[in-house]
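Notes to self after the Tuesday call (sharing in case useful).
The group wants a holo model before anyone commits to mutagenesis around the pocket. I volunteered. Ligand is zinc ion. Logging inputs and output together so the record is complete.
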Amino acid sequence: MMEQMLKYQEIDGKIKKIVYTLNHSDESVKGKKLGLFLKKAEENLKKMDRRSEELNSGVKKLKELYAQSIKDFDELEAGVEHAIDKNELNYISKKLADVSKNMAAIEKEISSVLREIDEIGKSYDDLKRKVPDARTQYKECRSKFEEKKKECEPEVTALKAELAQLEKEISDKNPKLIETYQKLRGQNIFPVLVPLVGGNKCSGCQMEVSIGATSKLDEKGFVICENCQRLIYKA
Ligand SMILES: [Zn+2]
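Result:
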């Protein structure tokens, strides 16, 4: 039984290795990076689009305000000629100064917004220029990856068939064993089956196994490590 289980683990390990190699290949790693870059680029371009829209409508409003200020200024200036006394003249002068100050502030704000629009435009163009090349490279990586994956497929299929056959054979005798194994594999633990070492230690985690567990090991051929949950067998 343990022999079959070990064979099962060996095949499982072979499949795991193939998948690992595939997922850590240059194509896969580079492809993932490029995929992420493209996704981020798309998000950023959208963000920049939205911000540009905001800024443009801001400029429009500021320009309207500015035009209104010019009108106010002209009206006030026209009033100077008709001022009836010094008091009114002073009042108008003060108003004119206020409007001028306000216009200067608006001008400053407009130029600051225009500067931001310009900066966004540059970043936008820069990013936009990088996207097509990244997309081409991404596609190349993907197709190379798919090619490699296809190359591995016959071997993986054969190994999986072997695994299924063994699983059936083991399950007929001890369904719990395969269940325990798969549960641990689901937690990304590998190897699941580890030999007892030094007479009483789990070689998976190096913890000592209790005397009760050791006798159970003699009786059943395997025992679950109380510390790391691996299946300990006697080598
Ligand atoms: Zn252990």
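Two things stood out.
The beta strands are 193-197, 201-202, 222-224, 231-233.
The two ends are 13 Å apart (CA to CA).
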